[in-house]
Amino acid sequence: MKTVLKMGASAALCLGVLAHPAFAEDNIVKIGVVAAESGSFVSAGHTLPAGVGLAVKQINDAGGINVGGKNYKLEMVKRDDRTDIATAIAATQELVRDVKVQAIFGSETHDFTLAMAKITQPAKIIHFAGNSTLAKILTPDSVKPGGEDHYLFQSEPQEFQRSGSTARGVLTLLEPLLGYKPKKSVMIVGNDATGQFLSSYYFKALKAEGQDVPDIIFYPPDTTDFSPFLTRAKSLNPDIIHFWYNGDSTLTALPQALELGAAKSYFLFGVDPGIWKEKQLSADVPVAMSCVPVCWGESSNPKAKAYFDAYFAAGAPHGVTSSVSLLYHDYVHFLAEAWEKAGSFDPDKTVEALLTLHHQGVVSDDLTFNPTHQVTHATEVCAAAPGGAISCSMQQPPAEAPKS
Amino acid sequence: MDIFIQQILNGLSIASVITLIAIGVTLIFGLTGIINFAHGEFLMIGGIVTWLAVSAGLGFPLAVVLAILAVGLMGYILERGLFRFTLERPTNGFIVSLGLIVVLQHVVVLFWNPNQKSIPRPLTTVWEVGGVRIASVRVMVIAITIAVVALSFRMITASRYGRALRASVEDRDTAALMGIPVRRYITGVFVLGSALAGLGGALLIALFPITPFTGGTMVMKGFAVALIGGLGNIYGAVAAGLILGIVEGFSAGYGFSQWTDAYSFALMILVLIVRPHGLFGGTSGPRMAS
C-alpha cells in the first residue's frame, strides 16, 4: 500500500511539474500575426510574419524587453488566413481567446482588418494594421479611451498621403526620362474593394498634379490576360499607364503592355526595383515603380540595405512587395518600446505610451502616431530609364488631401 | 479599326488556353462523370514543371514535353490511386478534386514558395501590321492549340480508339459487354486530359507569370466553356472557347471592363437555362446500368 502511495505521490509530483506551463511561459509575451500565407494575397501576406518574426528575433537576441523590472521574451504566433475573411476571423478569435496574445499584427487587407478589429478591440488587444484605408473608422471618437477602436493603430500612412507622394514622385521622375511633361494618364486597377478605394485617392492625386485622366480601367481580380484592357488604354493614347495596385498583377500586365506599345511610359505600383533587376526586366520606354514604403532592390534610404539583408538572411523570399514587411517590423520594436515605457502590458497604458513615443525605425527616424492612431512617413519612388539605370527618391506626403 | 482587330486577336489568344482546359474537363467528365475541379491545378503544375525545366537550362520545347509527361503521369497516378475509387459515386470524385486543389497548391508553396514564377518569352518578335501588334508568342500558342484540337478531333472521330471512347460515353456497360476495356479507357482519358492541362500550363507560363493559385481562375473559365459548349462535347468546347474569348476581349475593350468575368458566367447561366445540355449538346456523364 505504501509503495502504491509513494508511486502515486511521485507521479503526481512529476505531472504537477510538467503540467505547470506558467512556470515555463511566465516570461513569454505572445504576439499574434494573421496574414495571407496562401491564396491570392500571399505576395504581401507572407511579408507580415517575416517582418514581425525578424523583429521578434532581434528583440529576443538583444535580451528581450524589460517591463516593470522583469525581463520578457517575445513569441510570435502566426496564422494563415488563406486570403479568406472567415478564416481570418476564426484565427483572430483563436489568438485572442485561446492563445491569449498581447497584440495582433494584420491583416494586409482592409476588409479583413475591419472584421478582425471587431474581435481585438472589445478584448482590448493592441492591433496594428498596415492598411492605408482605416481613416473612416479611426476617428477622434472611436479612438478615445472607451471608444470602439481605442487599441487599433494604422501602421501605413493615410491613403491621400501615400497616393499624393506616389503621384508626385512618379511624375517628377518620369518627366526628364520622357523629355517632356506628361499630361495624359490612364489608370488600370484591380476591381476589388481595395482597388476601388485606393484608386479613388490616386485619381484625385493625379488630378491635383494637373493630369488629364480620361479613364480608369478596372480589371477583375486574378486576371492574367490584360491585352483587352491594355488595348482599350492604348486607344486613349496616354503618356503614362498607371498599374494600380497589385504588384503581382502589374508584373503580369507590363510585358503585355510593352508588346502592345500601349503607352509612352508606365508606372508599376508596389513593384520593387529588386524584382525588376532579378527578373531582368527591361523596357524601351521609362518605367516608374513605387514601394510600400521603402524599396529593397535600390533605395535612397540609408537603413534599407541593413534591414533587407537581415530580412532575406532570415529566409524570406525576394518578393514583389517584400517592403510591406516594414509596415509591421518597425511597429514590433515600437510596441516593445511602448511596453517598456509604460512599465506594464496594460493595454490602456500601452496606448498612452504609443501615442507619446517618437520611435527610430527603418522607415523613418521619427515614427509617431497622430491622435487618431495613424502614422505618417514618406514613400519611395524609383524609375528605370530605357537603358536600365534606376534612380530613387523618398517623396514626402502632402499635408492635406486634395479637394475633389 | 486597328483597335477592333487587335481586340479580335486578343480574344483568340484568350480562347486558346481556356479551350485546352475545357477539352480536358469535358473529356474527363464525358467518360468518367468526374467533375475534376483540380484540373486548374494540373495546369498550374504544368506551368511549374516548365518553369523548373527552363530554370534548369532546358529549352522551351523540351520543357513543354516534360510538362505534358509530368502532368500526364500525375493524372495516371491520381486516377489509379484516387479517382478510380469514386467512379461509382461521382460526387465523391468531385469532393476529392476539391481536396486536391488545396493539397497541390500547398505542395507547390512548400517546395517553391508562393511567389510568381515566370520564364523568358520563348518568342520575342512582335509584328506590327497596320497599327495592329501581333506578338509571335501568342501566335505560337494559338497555332499549338489549333494543332492539338485538330488532333483531338481526328482521334475522337476517325480512330478506332475514338469510336470505342464514344461508345463508352454513350453506355459504359454495353461498351464493356462488347469487349471495350472501359476501365483502361477511363484511365487513358484521364491521362490525356491531364496531359492537355500540362500543355496548357506550359503555354500559359510562356504568356504570363503564374502562381500556385493560378489554376482556380482558369478552371472556372474552363468549366464555363465546357458547360456552354455542352459537357462531354469536344466540338462544343472549342466553339464555346472561341465565343468566350471574343466576349471577354470585347467586354474588356468596349463594355464595363470590371464585369469581364461576369459576362462570361452570365452567358454560361443563360445558355444553361435555354439549353440545359449546352449550345452544342452534351452528356450528363456516363450512363450505367444500376
TrEMBL record, chain A:
One of its GO terms (biological process) is amino acid transport. It comes from the Bacteria. The keyword DNA damage does not apply. Residues 1-24 form the signal peptide. Residues 29-381 form the Leucine-binding protein domain. Keywords: Amino-acid transport, Signal, Transport. The keyword Transport applies. Coiled coil: none annotated. Belongs to the leucine-binding protein family. This is ABC-type branched-subunit amino acid transport system substrate-binding protein. It comes from Mesorhizobium sangaii.
UniProtKB/TrEMBL annotation, chain B:
GO terms for molecular function: transmembrane transporter activity. It comes from the Bacteria. The chain crosses the membrane at residues 12-38, 58-78, 90-112, 132-153, 185-210, 222-250, 262-280. It is a multi-pass membrane protein. Keywords: Amino-acid transport, Cell membrane, Membrane, Transmembrane, Transmembrane helix, Transport. It holds the Pfam family BPD_transp_2. InterPro entries: ABC_transp_permease (IPR001851), BCAA_transport_permease (IPR052157). GO terms for biological process: amino acid transport. GO terms for cellular component: plasma membrane. CDD domains: TM_PBP1_LivH_like. It is found in: Cell membrane. Belongs to the binding-protein-dependent transport system permease family. LivHM subfamily. This is Branched-chain amino acid transport system permease protein.
